[in-house]
Every structure is written in structure tokens, then in C-alpha cells.
Amino acid sequence: MAKAKQLRNYASIGDGRRYQVEEDLRCYMRVCEIKKDPARMKRVHKLAQDKLEEAAKVAAVTGEGDYS
């Protein structure tokens, strides 16, 4: 019963939103794969840190985030 209801809910999603839901599912599946591989997760974490530091430097130079 719950499975049929889930399928009806999925079928009622509009075309644009259906694409987004499917893309979100693919993304979630990739995340699950990455989390299972410690070495890969470590590389992703390092890259994320580097990107955040880079964004912080840009924000400091341009004054972005100064809304006081």
C-alpha cells in the first residue's frame, strides 16, 4: 500500500520537478558511494576546505559579506 502511494506521488510530480527529483536522487547515490570510500571522502573533504578558503579570500578582497 505504501509503495503504491509513493509511486502515485512520484507520478504526480510535474515534468520540471520530476527532473530535479531524479537529479537529486543521482546526487544522493553518488554521495552514498563517496561516503563508503574513506580515501575518496578525505579527498573530497580537502577540496571542499580549499574551495571555502578560496571563497573567503575573495570575499575579504571584495568586501563581500560586510553588511554591517
Please describe the topology of this protein.
Elements: H1 2-11, H2 15-36, H3 38-62
Could you say which overall geometry the principal axes of the C-alpha atoms support? flat
Reading the helices and strands in chain order gives: HHH
Q: Note the gap between the termini.
A: 54 Å
Number of helices: 3
Determine the oligomeric state from the structure: single chain
Uncertain segments: none
Report the sheet with the most strands, covering strand number, pairing sense and barrel closure: none
Indicate the proportion of strand residues. Answer: under 5%
* Secondary structure tally: strands: 0
Mean pLDDT: 84
What helical percentage do the residues reach? over 70%
Structural class: mainly alpha
